[in-house]
Amino acid sequence: SGGETILRWQGGPAWTRQTPIRAIPNTNLNDIFCFASNNCWAVGNNSGGETILRWQGGPAWTRQPFISSIPNVNLNSVSCLSANNCWIVGVNSAGEVLLRWQGGPDWLRVGPVAGLADVNMNALFTSTWGGFAVGATANIFQLTTGGYAPSGNLISSIFDMVGASPVEIIEWDETVPVCVPATACAVRLQLRVAPTAGGIPGAVWQGPTGAGSYFTLASGTLIPKILNGNRFVQYQVFLTGDGASTPVLSEVRLDYK
After folding, report:
1. What is the pLDDT of residues 36-78, one digit of tens each?
2. Helix spans in 93-179 (H)
3. What is the Cα–Cα distance from 235 to 233, expressed in whole angstroms?
4. Is residue 201 classed as helix, strand or coil in its secondary structure?
5. Which of 122, 66, 67, 118 is nearest to 93 (CA)?
6. Which of 45, 54, 187, 205 has a Cα-to-Cα distance from 197 of 20 to 30 A?
């Protein structure tokens, strides 16, 4: 009756109660999701409407703005694709409720799903390709938008340099967005060479300092001499993002004689 209950365990012998938010008494919290150790969301309801709480590592949770356009909402589940791409599902008297947050000050409502009134969305699962929400009357909803895969790689075709050529410089065109954190989005490349096309699959992937390293400068990097004197070359690209944004690779150029 005194308000919401949030308990925390940090490896000790007992759980400790977080300071309740006295401004929202009679609160029922239904779900919690932590994208990182200092980035958590908790959702539920109270007599005044939906409750969305956020914790960012401080001594207390803070309440997100009340969404006045959908009163009497019970929020059942929350999940995040990335630090700035989160979803909440629930229900109110008019039907299902689906909310999305993309790093701004407010959550935005998505939907509702046409022709499915009074649907109670109970649980939510998200992944890099979207997600699923499940509800009453055996309803299953698929989220087909909402992010990019956090990582992926591409292996090129095998290129014939005609002769036993020294490869000199590797460079490429890229577009890297501002991500959270900034280091989350990146483009990295590696090369492998062989005297014959059939030898490429068994060759070791190399970067500027040998195996296990990566080319990271789109403006151009000198290729180590150990890769010279071979006829065939292949590159692989590694793309990483934060889920909400992704880098784009437009063209790769290998300079050789």
Report:
1. 878 888 888 776 666 788 888 877 788 876 665 566 677 888 9
2. none
3. 7
4. helix
5. 118
6. 187
